[in-house]
């Protein structure tokens, strides 16, 4: 396996987009993502990483974006993923930090430590680009099993060795990341009930909080208004890379 920046292999941009997604279908319908996410690799190819095996088979990727950060941790936006994507695309001020938007490997290669390798490569790449701070509005991988648990409480859970219980948060912290705070409105996915039925296969026949496989929190459903909305909480993690 080799990991390199997309800027060095722009011929693989189609393979980057063709890589299978582990996210539930509804996650692809955040309006901010639908409008802006596809712009990132073309605008910032030097921050996108590809993990490639023989015959140019893409087995992992990192999507990241430089953005203007004030230098104060409390200024990291509560709107997390959506907000940092908007900040990076808008270029409001010179970039002072980089944020991960995604780091993942294909399904048959998960559980082999490749996610940690991608994260190490992302840290090295950001440092080499002259930045001292890498952030991520992290989506805890096991939180979907406890959608009713408050994210603040979930993110604070630790094992006996002091590292987070959640596997993806554990990986970040083990490599030097620090959990900063929860971003409670990191992504918003609205839709009609027909859309949500198509995305999930669930009936959505009753109003109220509804658990949906893959969602980190319940989906809010209103039958009377023919509408449902998912508000995803994430966790801001900070990797301080040096002066």
Compact summary:
The protein has 243 residues and is of the alpha+beta class. It is 26% helix and 29% strand. The radius of gyration is 18 Å and the shape is globular.
List the keywords.
243 residues; Aminopeptidase; 2 domains; nine-stranded mixed β-sheet; 8 helices; 9 strands; globular
Describe this structure in words.
- The protein has 243 residues and is an alpha+beta fold.
- It has 2 domains: 2-186 and 233-240, Aminopeptidase, CATH 3.40.630; 190-228, no CATH class.
- It contains 8 helices and 9 strands.
- The chain has helices spanning 13-18, 31-36, 40-43, 80-90, 114-128, 151-155, 167-174, 193-200, and strands at 2-5, 49-53, 57-67, 97-105, 133-138, 178-191, 208-210, 219-222, 227-240.
- Strands 1, 2, 3, 4, 5, 6, 7, 8 and 9 form a 9-stranded mixed sheet that branches.
- The two termini are 31 Å apart.
- The model has no long low-confidence stretch (mean pLDDT 95).
Shape: globular
**Series of secondary-structure elements, N-terminal to C-terminal:** EHHHEEHEHEHHEHEEE
Mean pLDDT: 95
CATH superfamily of the largest domain: Gcn5-related N-acetyltransferase (GNAT)
Question: How much helix is in the residues?
Answer: 25-40%
Distance between the termini: 31 Å
Stretches with pLDDT under 50, minimum 5 residues: none
CATH class of the largest domain: Alpha Beta
Range of strand content: 25-35%
- CATH topology type of the largest domain: Aminopeptidase
Q: What is the domain total for the residues?
A: 2
The class by helix and strand makeup works out as alpha+beta
CATH architecture of the largest domain: 3-Layer(aba) Sandwich
Largest sheet features: 9 strands, mixed
Rg (C-alpha, Å): 18 Å
Number of strands: 9
**What is the helix tally?**
8
